[in-house]
């Protein structure tokens, strides 16, 4: 889950913060106390506590007693009796959890019925928890960022340059991350989840809600420790088989083009009063083709934005567009920008519109923040991945398949996949099973959106086939994870599952109130439930 998605999700949920009274927490061996506000800012959030838990640095080295501290956050249950704790992972890999979970605490309390503590920790390799960094200084950070974001179709020679740069990036990461690079894999984080469960001192069972990459972590822990699972939700499901065993996450991008095209379809559908781009009297297909014509022209004629001292080129726009696909919230601004570009009378007018595009993307992360995020992503995912190759032709085949799968984004992905192919670390432990288990308490609930550009619904069905009795709840909306698509139906089924393990009927599909170019928020959904029960 990228930083952009996390920011979008926070905005969606912040508007939905329904205050709930605080109930007492369960006793545990973790000493909870006030959060360090420079690390977890709890101003305006649900009441949050922070704590640490020492866990083994290397679970495979039984002769070592070396430990490090997991950094945890806890949002106490608001309804008594408390039923225990639900552990969360909000995605990545490489994303921290504590700040986002504190920010989203009220929303998750509402979604889970208020009877559970909401608990999360920054996974190893992220934040202050056994941090992993590829860059030792600002110059290396800039170099790494350029190598990771090089688009394979940015020029006629880009693929060869990207392949050579991937080798250098992997070597830089090996040089600077040698002390931690093999100890931040997903299997160790799965064991950390169980360590937290043991330390909480409840019933010894894991309750877990994983989103995006958190579903790969969830499928891993459920496969490694099926007898320790009480209830588990996998939301926006990755294909864990590809995550571990392929040279790229191919299936992950199989709906990206459909979701991107849907922006134009829904713009035309709502009409020019709501979406001015529709006033150009073109079909959705013709409007999208106008975008591609503009984009390909940028490849050879990038536009300088003098006020921002930036050059907007092919890769810049593609990266912006991909971030739009996490939520429908950005669709109106994007179509308005395109309308301004397509009706511009001069290059200056186009530059003004593109400047608006950059502003619409929100505050850009700093160089250090971007590098840390990329380092953590690569350290975890590349270390987990089994296949490697030194053969450029293998990656040309990967590039061809990615671009066949996704015209919108396939070429931008190749730099990171090439880096993983040359990666010099292997996680000390990697789950190598088939993701098949019977959970003894409550079967798994998997959730996927019909219009998720990053984790297609078919991945949820693929994973469900390995977990006996599990069910898939399909949300008929656009966005990444169920949390990006406000829906009273989703709220009903999720809260029922956490209440008593009730699964939706087979084939259940949820309609959503949040439509493209609309303005329904989770606040409306939560308020509707409150009014219905009062």
TrEMBL record:
Domain Peptidase S33 tripeptidyl aminopeptidase-like C-terminal: 408-510
Cleavable signal peptide: 1-19
Keywords: Hydrolase, Signal
Domain of life: Eukaryota
A Pfam family hit: Abhydrolase_1
Residues annotated as domain AB hydrolase-1: 104-258
Keyword Coiled coil carried by entry: no
Molecular function terms, GO-annotated: hydrolase activity
UniProt similarity note: Belongs to the peptidase S33 family.
Protein name: Peptidase S33 tripeptidyl aminopeptidase-like C-terminal domain-containing protein
Organism the protein comes from: Pseudocercospora musae
């Amino acid at each position: 889950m990228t930083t952009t998605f996390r920011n979008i999700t926070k905005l969606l949920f912040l508007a939905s913060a329904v205050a709930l009274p605080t109930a007492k927490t369960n006793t545990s061996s973790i000493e909870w106390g006030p959060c360090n506000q420079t690390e977890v800012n709890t101003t305006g959030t649900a009441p949050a506590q922070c704590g640490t838990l020492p866990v083994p640095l290397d679970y495979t080295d039984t002769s070592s007693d070396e430990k490090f501290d997991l950094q945890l956050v806890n949002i106490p249950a608001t309804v008594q009796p408390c039923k225990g704790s639900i552990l969360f992972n909000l995605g990545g890999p490489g994303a921290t959890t504590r700040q986002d979970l504190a920010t989203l605490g009220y929303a998750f309390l509402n979604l889970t019925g208020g009877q559970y503590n909401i608990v999360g920790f920054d996974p190893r390799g992220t934040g202050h928890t056994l941090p992993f960094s590829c860059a030792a200084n600002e110059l290396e950070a800039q170099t790494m960022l350029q190598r990771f974001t090089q688009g394979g179709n940015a020029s006629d020679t880009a693929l060869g340059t990207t392949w050579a740069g991937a080798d250098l990036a992997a070597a830089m990461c090996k040089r600077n991350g040698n002390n931690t690079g093999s100890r931040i894999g997903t299997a160790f984080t799965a064991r950390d989840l169980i360590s937290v469960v043991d330390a909480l001192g409840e019933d010894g069972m894991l309750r877990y809600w994983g989103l995006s990459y958190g579903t790969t972590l969830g499928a891993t822990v459920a496969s490694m420790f099926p007898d320790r699972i009480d209830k588990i939700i996998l939301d926006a499901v990755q294909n864990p088989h590809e995550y571990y065993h392929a040279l790229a996450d191919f299936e992950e991008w199989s709906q990206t083009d459909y979701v991107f095209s849907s922006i134009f379809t829904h713009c035309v559908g709502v009409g020019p009063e709501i979406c001015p781009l529709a006033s150009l009297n073109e079909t959705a297909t013709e409007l999208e083709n106008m975008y591609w014509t503009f984009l390909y022209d940028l490849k050879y004629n990038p536009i300088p934005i003098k006020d921002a001292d930036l050059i907007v080129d092919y890769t810049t726009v593609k990266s912006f567009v991909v971030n739009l696909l996490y939520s429908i919230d950005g669709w109106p601004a994007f179509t308005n920008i395109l309308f301004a570009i397509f009706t511009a009378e001069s290059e200056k007018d186009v530059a003004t519109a593109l400047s608006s595009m950059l502003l619409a993307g929100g505050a850009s992360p700093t160089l250090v923040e971007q590098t840390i995020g990329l380092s953590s992503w690569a350290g975890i995912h590349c270390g987990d991945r089994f296949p490697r190759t030194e053969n450029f032709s293998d990656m040309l085949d990967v590039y061809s398949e990615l671009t066949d799968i996704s015209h919108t984004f396939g070429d931008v992905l190749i730099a990171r996949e090439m880096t993983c192919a040359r990666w010099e670390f292997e996680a000390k432990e990697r789950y190598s099973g088939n993701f098949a288990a019977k959970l003894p308490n409550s079967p798994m609930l998997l959730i996927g959106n019909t219009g998720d550009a990053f984790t297609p619904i078919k991945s949820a069905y693929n994973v469900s086939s390995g977990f006996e009795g599990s069910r898939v709840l399909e949300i008929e909306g656009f966005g990444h994870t169920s949390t990006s698509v406000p829906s009273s139906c989703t709220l009903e089924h999720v809260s029922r599952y956490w209440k008593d393990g009730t699964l939706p009927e087979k084939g259940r599909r949820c309609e959503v109130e949040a439509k493209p170019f609309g303005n329904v928020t989770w606040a409306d959904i939560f308020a509707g439930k409150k009014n219905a029960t009062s």
